[in-house]
Amino acid sequence: MTDLSLSGPVPDEAEDGVYLACIECGETFAPFAEPTYECAACGSLLEVRYDEYHGFDSFAGAGVWRYDAALPVDDGVSIDEGNTPLYEAPTIEDEVGVADLRIKHEGMNPTGSFKDRGMTVGVRVAERIGVGRLACASTGNTSAALSAYGARADKETLVLLPEGKVAAGKLAQASLHGATMLEVEGNFDDCLDIVSELADRGEVYLLNSLNPFRLEGQKTIGLEMLEQFRDQTGDLPDRIVLPVGNAGNTAALHKAFRELVEAGEIEESEVPTLTGVQAAGAAPLVEAVEEEADEVTRWAEVETRATAIRIGEPVNWPKALPAIRQTGGTAVAVTDDEITDAQRSLAEDGIGVEPASAASVAGLRKLRDAGEIGADEQVVCLTTGHLLKDPDAAAEAGTDPQTVENSVSAVLDAAGD
Predict the structure, then answer these.
(1) 124: alpha, beta or left, given left = phi > 0 and alpha = psi -120 to 50?
(2) CA-to-CA distance for 72 and 13, rounded, in angstroms?
(3) Per-state percent for the chain, helix, strand, coil, to nearest 5
(4) Tally of domains within the chain
(5) Cβ neighbours of residue 120 under 8 Å, at least 6 residues apart?
(6) Strands (E), 51-139
(7) Chain centroid, CA 175 distance in Å
(8) Which helix (H) or strand (E) is 222 found in, with range?
(9) Number of other residues whose CB lies within 10 A of the CB of residue 11
(10) Residues 315, 355: Cα–Cα separation, whole Å
(11) Is 288 found in the same domain as 338?
(12) CA–CA dist 156, 153 (Å, integer)
């Protein structure tokens, strides 16, 4: 049975008040002795836990490391990640008819996605453990972030990518930052299988979201989001709608909120409802929610133009499924056309995102139309990657340039003077 309780005695394995705990059997492990990704006793996911949990009065500064009191290390391999904007989206807010809508745009991180938050923590932990080569499987954003933070830390970096399935902007980033890039004849899940085996052999240090330390960085999205929303509105959001790929953010945000409850900062009743959105062609978590299943079944074939969430088996589903259910949330699948339409609508409000990011707004629309999200709700949609992560998709969603004669009158005519 999944154990998401943060209270209890601190085990002998704790180091500087930090330890790892299995979410299924409760076995505990030392945090920094050696690379540890899954429970040695039962094979389930691990979670970073602490001897003390902190409210907002404990935090100072800006960005991810504002929250160092709630993180497993005191500082990171940093490129000033975090402190991303919480935008208003008045056009979409009026259209969907909710009390308040904000867009938490994680595409405004240094490499253009939320993955930077996890890497600043994860790469520092890799240094503390003393590992050499870093590695990940990626649909693109993870490879870009790991390549940049690996370069910053002067670490060798290996990334495995599904052949022909990664957007150009993300490939360019990993290439420029000097990673060894290998395209595997398969999908993302195949890449993750390989890199996980390499990690088990001790060949690499895995920095996919299977690594519990990466999710500690990502939980700062939730901490920062609540602070910003409260500063802007004087209240806390009722619901957070977010894209789901490997389900790391769903798990990480839920952990952030659980820690705030444990610290006495918020009440259990104030925890926002978590609502996951997947592309219809890659929706195993949605299937599990709709069928009220106890586990997620892997989809062997997945396809969507939202490449960042083209994943058939979210590795963090054992954390994400309880997160959705315990907060009274749900999950919904949206079509690629619905995603593109949402991407255009965000652009009309001046917010540029890649397709996977727009899934959150597409999901909000769908659930609002179905009456599952109320008109009185205050909602935050999480957008995870910048528009230029996938320039081809942006160009297809936008308008084509016109060719005109070389004259002022021709330009005025074409511009609709």
Answers:
(1) alpha
(2) 14
(3) 40, 15, 40
(4) 2
(5) 64, 65, 76, 77, 78, 79, 81, 149, 217
(6) 86-88, 100-105, 134-137
(7) 22
(8) helix 212-233
(9) 16
(10) 21
(11) yes
(12) 9
CA distance 383 to 353: 7
What is the spatial distance between Cα 212 and Cα 214, in angstroms, rounded to a whole number?
5
- Residue 378: domain span: 86-110+215-397
Is residue 224 within 8 Å of 252, Cβ to Cβ?
Answer: no
The DSSP code for 272 is: P
The Cα–Cα gap between 346 and 82 comes to 21
The first and second tokens of residue 171, run together, are: 């490939």
Q: Which of 206, 230, 258 finishes a domain?
A: 206
Q: Tell me, yes or no, whether 42 lies in a domain.
A: no
Domain-embedded: residue 91: yes
1 confidence band (pLDDT: 50, 70, 90): low
Span 4-15, pLDDT tens digits? 889 889 999 999
pTM of the model: 0.95
- Residue with structure tokens 């504002």? 66
Residues 6+ apart with CB under 8 A from 274: 239, 240, 242, 250, 253, 254, 323, 324, 327, 329
The secondary structure of 223-265 as a DSSP string is: HHHHHHHHHHHSS--SEEEEE-SSSHHHHHHHHHHHHHHHTTS
Q: How many Å apart are CA 335 and CA 366, to the nearest integer?
A: 10
User: Which of these three, 206, 226, 250, is where a domain ends?
Assistant: 206
Say whether both 226 and 129 belong to one domain.
no
> What tokens were used for 415?
């511009």
Q: Phi, psi at residue 276, to the nearest 5°?
A: -95, 145
**DSSP-derived pairing of the beta strands 86-88 and 330-334:** unpaired
Whether 223 and 191 map to the same domain: the answer is: no
Q: Are 96 and 364 in contact (CB under 8 A)?
A: yes
Tens of pLDDT, residue by residue over 257-312, are: 999 999 999 999 999 999 999 999 999 999 999 999 999 999 999 999 999 999 99
β-pairing, 100-105 vs 134-137, is unpaired
For residues 68 and 78, is the Cβ–Cβ distance under 8 A? no
**What is the rounded distance in angstroms from the CA atom of residue 195 to the CA atom of residue 112?**
24
Which residue's structure tokens are 């008040």?
17
CA-to-CA distance for 70 and 399, rounded, in angstroms?
45
Answer whether residue 411 is part of any domain. Answer: no
